[in-house]
Amino acid sequence: MLGPVLLAASRSAAIRRIVSAAPVTRPMVDRFIAGERLAESLGAVRSLTARGLEVTLDHLGEDVTDRAEALRSRDAYLALTEALATEGLAGRAEMSVKLSAFGQALPGGHDLALANVTPVVEAATAAGTTVTLDMEDHTTVDSTLAVLAELRGRFPQTGAVLQSYLFRTEDDCRALAGEGSRVRLVKGAYKEPASVAHQDKREVDRAYVRCLKILMAGEGYPMIGSHDPRMVAIAQDLAHRLGRKLDEYEFQMLYGIRAAEQERLVAEGHRMRVYVPYGTDWYGYFMRRLAERPANLTFFLRSLVGRR
């Protein structure tokens, strides 16, 4: 299976150079990434919101290696917040942040990430939008949830992401299913060891449904992050059976994937949010998208071989 290999490759500098230099890479990247500059991402936001969709924006960058990079990530999000407010888009577009981009993996990283992300959440609140903390590999979960708890003390609308393939996630769902909590549930996109995560797709799916039931039955605001038609249908059924109104949960899907399904859900009256990444540091995100979808991977590899 090439998927796990690609997940490992997503953190390889040598493979990064090869993939970045391949002529076939750019068209594939453009499918999943809204652009490298802020202006390009805002254009994508305007296009999506004009069609009734909502957006969460991710300025790409993770695994930063020094404090200066972490500050640049903070400043990029502050510029994004200002642009959303200026363009009148803050009501339809929120932001997703990876704490590794704010220095979480550096010495003293927990406190550093909290210090760097706090002004972003502060600015987002002032602009009338929200921030969701993306979840990364299992080694970061405790720190990320602790940062979430700190932020929610002042900014209760701050959201979090939970990954169903981790054994611990059902307990985390129970802890975060309370009133006012915003939780995006995804299956998970990092290579994790069998000691902490389900390895079989069917088990990941079953865990997703169990977690979804917890969140839907709770008092928070579930955000269903899935392109899987079965999970979408199960979420709709749960919402109906539990009496949730259409504005009491939302679906989320990635930019460039299942656009027709996104618009179908909007036409049915559902809130549908598109995860829109942008920026120059696209490699890790791009490789995870290839690993998730065999059709994308096959197309890319055939194109790469053909070019060579």
TrEMBL record:
Substrate binds at K98, R288, R289. Binds 1 FAD per subunit. FAD binds at M135, Q163, K187, G188, A189, K201, S226, H227. The keyword Flavoprotein applies. It comes from the Bacteria. Pathway: Amino-acid degradation; L-proline degradation into L-glutamate; L-glutamate from L-proline: step 1/2. Keywords: FAD, Flavoprotein, Nucleotide-binding, Oxidoreductase, Proline metabolism. Gene3D superfamilies: 3.20.20.220. SUPFAM superfamilies: FAD-linked oxidoreductase. GO terms for biological process: L-proline catabolic process to L-glutamate. GO terms for molecular function: nucleotide binding; proline dehydrogenase activity. The keyword Nucleotide-binding applies. Its cofactor is FAD. Pfam families: Pro_dh. Residues 44-299 form the Proline dehydrogenase domain. Its EC number is 1.5.5.2. It catalyses: L-proline + a quinone = (S)-1-pyrroline-5-carboxylate + a quinol + H(+). PANTHER family: PROLINE DEHYDROGENASE 1, MITOCHONDRIAL, PROLINE OXIDASE. This is proline dehydrogenase. It comes from Streptomyces malaysiensis subsp. samsunensis.
